[in-house]
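Could you join me in thinking about how sequence relates to backbone shape in a protein? We need material for that, and I hope you will provide a protein of your own picking. Once you have written the record down, we can walk along the chain together:

…
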Amino acid sequence: MSAAVQDALDLDAAWALHPQVALRPESFGALLYHFGTRKLSFLKNRTIVAIIESLPDHPDMRSAITAAGITESASASYVKAFATLADSKMIVTV
C-alpha cells in the first residue's frame, strides 16, 4: 500500500457512517444517501458494504478491513475507496 493512500485515511481511527447518511442495500451492493449534502453514492463492491456495516463492531478502520478478510497487501484499493467516502463526508471518525 502506498504512503499516499495510507495518509488519505486514518486507519487507526474509529469510523462510522455520518449521522445524516442512510445505507440502502441493493442487488448490486448498496446506495449511500447523505441527507445534508444530498449526495448519492453507489457502492458496487459488497465487501465495502460489509465493512461499512461492521464499522460499529471494530475499534478502527484497519481492524474492520482485516476482519473482512482483506490482507494488508490487498487493502490499497479498499483504503482508497474509504478515503473517497470520507472526503465526501459519507463516513466520519467517531
